[in-house]
Amino acid sequence: MDLSLNEIKTLIALEHYPEQRTEEMNKLLDCHIKDIAKRIHELAHLRMKLIELREKSATTDEDPMKLLLQHSGVRFVRW
User: What residue segments make up the domains of the chain, in order of their start?
Assistant: First the structure.
């Protein structure tokens, strides 16, 4: 469930307080649901970027490593 040790300790400590336990557990779950939604969004964005990069590398003679580095925002300075 991807709970930290501190979160587990908090839930165990609330075992004797059922009215607080439900509220705290819901807060904890809501926080994890929000984090998961954010990660899904970030991964979907990354997936689209990788698909774009793959399509671009298939249609050009440019060095694939150079394309990857340019696509990732890496900048090189010439000496």
Answer: 5-71
